[in-house]
Amino acid sequence: MQSGQIMVGAHEGVYVIKLVGDVRLNLCTSFDDFIDNMFAHDDFTDVVFDLHGAEGVDSTTLGLMAKIAIRALDRGCQKPLALSADKGIRHLLDAMGFDALIEVSDERRDFATETKPLKCKTPDECAAREKVLEAHRVLMSMNEHNAETFRDLVHTLERECTPMEKPSARMH
Fold first, then answer.
1. Dist. CA 65–CA 142, nearest whole Å
2. Domains of the chain by range and CATH?
3. Cα gap 139→69, rounded to integer Å
4. pLDDT averaged over consecutive 10-residue blocks of the chain (172 residues)?
5. Which of 5, 37, 43, 110 has the fewest CB atoms found within 10 Å of its own CB?
6. What is the pLDDT of residue 35?
7. Cβ-based neighbour number of residue 124 at 10 Å
8. Quick one: CA torsion of 48, 53, 59, 61, rounded to 10 degrees?
9. Burial class (CB in 10 A: 0-12, 13-18, 19+), 90
10. Cβ distance 22 to 2 under 8 Å?
């Protein structure tokens, strides 16, 4: 599998997010920063996920896609569009309950915008863990199936993210 890349672009308030290759959590902090910047723009009107080049999408990336969809819907926008002809990716989106948040189509589209690779900085371990935790909480909020699927992972991450008491502090 080709290592993953996220390509982004915008034209007249429509943001295009192309996932290429095997998109994994190592891109999550940069992707989350992009999401915040995207919604900070007053001209934001819609988002399209182009998954035609995606070979794999991990649950953290799916959680961030759900975060985008929820924020867009909260803003009064229509459901974002996800484009993919890959049966495995379409099945994954369906199984996770994305039909409540996005429209899925197998069509190919040409966009008025050029997409460029998202500049990805290597996240520190704690920041990455926090983004993974947030993404999975979003997935859990979508439906009971996801809540059950990710409950143990989220509980484990929550325990790992809780600052531990320093040994020297217990000695006093």
1. 12
2. 5-122 (3.30.750.24)
3. 11
4. 83 94 78 90 93 93 95 95 95 94 92 84 76 91 94 88 49 42
5. 110
6. 92
7. 10
8. -50
9. middle
10. yes
Query: What Rg value do the Cα atoms of the chain yield, rounded?
Result: 17
Alpha-carbon distance values, 138 to 6, 44, 59, 86, 163 (Å) = 20, 21, 10, 24, 22
**Which two three-digit tokens encode residue 58?**
């991990």
Angle between helices 125-142 and 28-40 in degrees, nearest 10: 70
Distance CA 76, CA 56 (A): 30
Question: Percentage helix, strand, coil, to 5, in the chain?
Answer: 50, 20, 30
The pLDDT assigned to 165 comes to 43
Residue type present at position 40: A
